[in-house]
Amino acid sequence: MVWKPHVTVAAIIERESRFLLVEEMTPQGLQFNQPAGHLEENEDLITAVRREVYEETAWQFEPEHLISVQLWRKNTASSTFLRVCFSGSCHSHDPEQVLDEGIVATHWLSRDEIVQHQSRLRSPLVLIGINDYLEGQRHPLSLIKSFLDLDYA
Questions:
Q1: What pTM was estimated for this model as a whole?
Q2: Which of 16, 44, 63, 84 could form a disulfide with 88 if both were Cys (CB 3.0 to 4.6 A apart)?
């Protein structure tokens, strides 16, 4: 059997010192997460993060920086995730957009409020990503190269 990590994307979106998080129903109950989700077949990472933010929050997202690439596994019995974390801004909210299944609400929370909900974070990567962002980690999107359907013939 070939081992493969789950490839996911996440968005850190800050406005007026508050971060956009989703509250979602999970097998562990209601949890908070950045807008995030799995990379789909035939999709590049930038397209994936834009799609996930829209599907989960009804906001259009414009990625501006790569914050980090995070490899995470809760324990040896758990799945492994390769998470590509972006920062950027959002615009053009569509209040009529139906949010992804499982998304209960969206919230703009300060870092302190996020820490208060730490026991309800989907993973430690939520706060780690925000801390990296607040510490000034910013990498150009040009680090990401996509070669889908590239013909070398």
A1: 0.92
A2: 63
